[in-house]
Amino acid sequence: MAKISFLFSFLLVVAFGFVNGSPPKDAVGIYELKRGDMSVKFTNWGATIISVVLPDKNGKLGDVALGYDTITDYMNDTTYFGALVGRVANRIGGANFVLNGTEYKLVANEGKNMLHGGPKGFGDVVWKVKKYKNEGHAPFILFGYDSYDGEEGFPGELKVTVGYTLLPKNQLSVTMKAKAVKKDTPVNLIQHTYWNLGNHDSGDILSEEIQLFASRYTPVDSQLIPTGKLLPVKGTPYDFLKPNTIGSRIEELPKGYDINYALDGTPGKLNKVAVVKDKKSGRVMELLANQPGVQFYTGNMIRFVYKAHAALCLETQGFPDSVNHPNFPSQIVTPEKPYKHNMLFRFSIAP
Ligand SMILES: *[C@@H]1O[C@H](CO)[C@@H](O)[C@H](O)[C@H]1NC(C)=O
Ligand SMILES: *[C@@H]1O[C@H](CO)[C@@H](O)[C@H](O)[C@H]1NC(C)=O
Questions:
Q1: What's the 304 CA to ligand 1 centre distance in angstroms?
Q2: Which partner from 18, 102, 314, 342 sits 20 to 30 angstroms from 299, CA to CA?
Q3: Where are the domains positioned within the chain?
Q4: pLDDT for 335-350, tens place per residue?
């Protein structure tokens, strides 16, 4: 979050006419979870993470998530800062797919393709606050959104929740669930926080080190739609099997990293996804998740408030455009088999 939280709360109260913590139904508010010296702020606009405050190696608190000062900026945002993205995150080629022999035409919002659920995806709607406990042993907040049949072109009603919980030792758990009410539908939810372990306003992340537990990636065409192949990272700038700085080979790519990796872990289990380290602050972020893929993105398109490469995103997910690639793990959710996506962020200080 860019400036002081007080200013943010104040602006929200003025703009929406309610006091932080007890908004009327369907209003937009901000919420905070605190445990020890870790605190995280959210807004129910897009079930968004606004800030993640943690100590550095000297015990100095700092915010490691990019964010805006006003809700107006979130509403105008085109980079999905901190948002919960769906119904199908990432790209769907041609903004259409066939399910059960029926062709579904979606709302395109990136040329002829759909990105991140369409022009009004889950990151651009007001979520309900279903539960909120801001302190204690396991502070948590649960947001809910009921997506209607035909929303952005997708089939069937879908009931979605995302729960954020602060666990001991500076851990943040994210649990995304979705239940198809009557019809089958594709679902691919992501948490789109932009991380900069050196502080949100400390400049670029090119000197931060990353390790990605993925031996293969899904190459894309010129419109960033997967070709359907899975290629080894070995010998490419995508190889982070051993820890390396983000900037080490970024010049070899047109704009920076924006690619989905096929993770090496056991399908469906909570596997190691990535470890990110920032030498200057000493902060370390470890990510675990139960998804087959992770989109590694170096904020190539950031233009507003912050600059390109000011942060990185690790969006665990199914593979992009899975609805059009039968060889990719299926993203179809049925009324009998709900969707569940777990992420666990572990923050620490390098020894
Ligand atoms: C909306 O966002 C764009 C960048 O995406 C920025 O250039 C513009 O100034 C913003 N508008 C307002 C009113 O903040
Ligand atoms: C697809 O077919 C199955 C089984 O016939 C049915 O349960 C489901 O609702 C159908 N999905 C859609 C999106 O029509």
A1: 7
A2: 342
A3: 30-205+294-346
A4: 999 999 999 999 999 9
